[in-house]
Design a protein that fits this description.
single chain, alpha+beta, 5-stranded antiparallel sheet, about 40% strand
Length: about 100
């Protein structure tokens, strides 16, 4: 009987650990390349400027393809989800295409 309860405890711990990993995996997969700048000019084309920094694998220089986020530091903080690539020249600025403001 003792062996069975011990086996149950080990199985429960393994299932809990696997569940925690499954929950953590999507968060890592959603790490969109991000540009954080002091300010941004909104629109379908977003111009982020002033002390820009790249994170989550965003390109620091040159053209980039695919999705990105542009986030401002200064209040009110703005966030844009962009889908069509763009061009980065950090720390001066970033131009991102196909953007939509995220609430």
């Amino acid at each position: 009987m003792r062996f069975s309860s011990h086996l149950f405890t080990i199985t429960l711990a393994a299932v809990s650990a696997a569940g925690a990993l499954a929950v953590a995996a999507p968060a890592q997969a959603d790490a969109t390349p991000t540009y954080t700048c002091d300010q941004a000019q909104p629109g379908r084309i977003v111009l982020g400027h002033g002390n820009c920094a790249a994170s989550n694998g965003a390109s620091a220089q040159g053209e980039f393809q695919g999705e990105s986020l542009v986030v401002t530091r200064q209040a009110p903080q703005l966030k844009f989800h962009c889908r069509d690539g763009g061009r980065a020249q950090l720390p001066d600025g970033v131009v991102a295409l196909g953007c939509q403001r995220v609430p």
